[in-house]
Amino acid sequence: MIMKLLNILILSASVLVASACGAPKAANQTPVNEPANPPGMHLLTESDVIRAWAVGESNNKMVARNKATMMAQAQLGQLLDMAVNTTVEDYCVTLEDADQVIGKRYLSEKTHAVSNLLLTGVRIIYDAWEHDEKTGTYSNYVVVEVSPEDYLSRLMEAVAADPQIQVDQERLKEVFMKAVNKK
Q1: Dihedral through CA 146, CA 149, CA 150, CA 152, nearest 10?
Q2: Which terminal residue of the chain, N or C, has fewer Cβ atoms less than 10 Å from its own Cβ?
Q3: Strands 137-146 and 50-58
């Protein structure tokens, strides 16, 4: 038991020494088959849209497609979440102290509920395939999009359904679009 523990410690120490002495790291290595300008990536630079890009790779086309779509949807969820959180923060800064606490909690609940609903209906706006004959690997490049207008209209419907809390809809739209365009 002691020898086994000693061997593990020696192995760990040698890995640390090797990495500290300049051994190449996997994170710095670029895959050989990764294109310099991946297909569909150019679509991410447009303003007034919320888009995400991903690539899925597999020997099976359906698996490659599912990987790409799920990764793009997850990334889109993160982007939408960041825009929503920024919107709530920036919108609530202009409110009075008591209203700020109520407004922040209220808007957070509404915006996240609408975000979850909207993410189920993302659109694939770009879909490209590559096939590596040597390895038999399929690469599916996907760009997915959520329309900010769809998001805002659903959010405004949710806000309008609750007349107890007053929200400046124009200001909220303005703040949201500003957050969407922070790229």
Answers
A1: 110
A2: N
A3: antiparallel
